[in-house]
Amino acid sequence: MKKIRVKVFGPQREKLKKYIIKKYPIFDIIGKEDKNVDLDICYGGDGTLLLAERMDPGVPKVGIRNSQICDTCKNETSDTILQLIRDGKYNISEYYKLAAVCKGKTVVALNDIIIGHYYINTALRFKVFIDDIPYGGEFLGDGVVVSTPIGSTGYYQAITRSNFQHGIGVAFNNTVNIIGHVVVNNKAEIKVLITRGPGRLRYDNDRSQISLVKGDEVLIHKSKQISRLINFSRKNEKYNIDVSHNRLPLGYCQICRKYYL
């Protein structure tokens, strides 16, 4: 049987690597610099997935939640997912990402583009345009979050208490203006004009940033890049990277959906 070349990402990746080598010889674990890879195994949470996508854009990825607190699923998750992949019982779905262009730089995000104030005790002033048409007036607040459907169950949902499955979401973060969030067509271009800074642009969980001052513009649109995520069907759907349901509140396991506190 042909070997499956995989990379393992996550804070406790060495532990999972040893387990894979011992129990699943079909997987050939390769180094992080190797480009000839079939699959990325993301052993952790959302942050691990985002890191893996930045390092290996477009490579199919599967998430294995590294739960240390939920006794119901922490012992079964790794084996179930590894067996399903070994047996070819999975599908690969494609999802679009966002590109943000500012000051001659382009960044690409799987989850979201975040434009916010630079200092926590000062507000940002900005305007938003959707396909060059102003949306609202001048905003004053913490900033704006532009999200993909995958990212809509994260920061976007924390702001809006909602999520979406199609389009691009624009959420206004703690603004003085009373205005609702909006979901636009994924072919739309969103422009954010800074009218009073300082501010900063960040994306996903990357630690780099672009500093913003008065007059700076950020153009956000669907990227040409795509992400590929492994999904399972029927009784194993609970192991999918969920892009369609509300996040469970603190104290509930995202995998087995049981209360663990």
Task: Summarize the structure in words.
With 261 residues, this protein is mainly beta. It folds into two domains: 4-90 and 232-239, 3-Layer(aba) Sandwich (Rossmann fold); 98-224, Tumour Suppressor Smad4 (Sandwich). It has four helices and 16 strands. Strands 6-5-16-13-8-9 form a six-stranded antiparallel beta sheet, covered by helices on one side. Strands 12-11-10-7-14-15 form a six-stranded antiparallel beta sheet. The radius of gyration is 20 Å and the shape is elongated. The mean pLDDT is 90.
List keywords for this structure.
single chain; 261 residues; mainly beta; Rossmann fold; Tumour Suppressor Smad4; 2 domains; six-stranded antiparallel sheet; 4 helices; 16 strands; elongated
The DSSP helix count reads 4
Strand order, largest beta sheet: 6-5-16-13-8-9
CATH superfamily grouping of the largest domain? Probable inorganic polyphosphate/atp-NAD kinase, domain 2
Q: What kind of oligomer do you see? A: single chain
Shape, please?
Answer: elongated
Q: And the CATH topology of the largest domain?
A: Tumour Suppressor Smad4
The tally of domains stands at 2
Major sheet, described briefly?
A: 6 strands, antiparallel
Task: Bin the helical content.
Answer: 10-25%
CATH C-level of the largest domain: Mainly Beta
Instruction: Write the CATH architecture name of the largest domain.
Output: Sandwich
- Which radius of gyration do the C-alpha atoms yield? 20 Å
Structural class: mainly beta
The CA-CA distance between the termini, in Å, is 43 Å
